[in-house]
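Changelog-adjacent note: as of this version, every example in the card shows the full chain rather than a window. The one below runs 119 residues end to end.
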Amino acid sequence: QVQVVESGGGAVQPGGSLRLSCATTKNIFNIYAMGWYRQAPGKQREMVARISTGGTTNYADSVKGRFTISRDNADNTVYLQMNSLKPEDTAVYYCNYGRSTWSGPIGSWGQGTQVTVSS
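Full-length structure tokens:
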């Protein structure tokens, strides 16, 4: 059963910004670390960023300094602010949850949201 809904993707030029949103249930949000993952065409899905219930974060080296993950406790939503986007950031972005910022995802995958960076 899919319990996350991603939104906010789109097409943007290199150097641009996008903010992705992931809404989930209160139970999941309060118990698990939340994370963003992405899958580019022909590549395996990879971790982008994770955030614990306490706000500890973990980023892939390729996005450090450009992406910021955050969580809004009021509406059970996790955000991914993406700045200085590059063509290699083009992918379908997925939200999921896990036991910690160092653990893999354990939920069912949603449909994701497409991010395309191109001039």
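Structural remarks: The longest helix spans residues 26-31.
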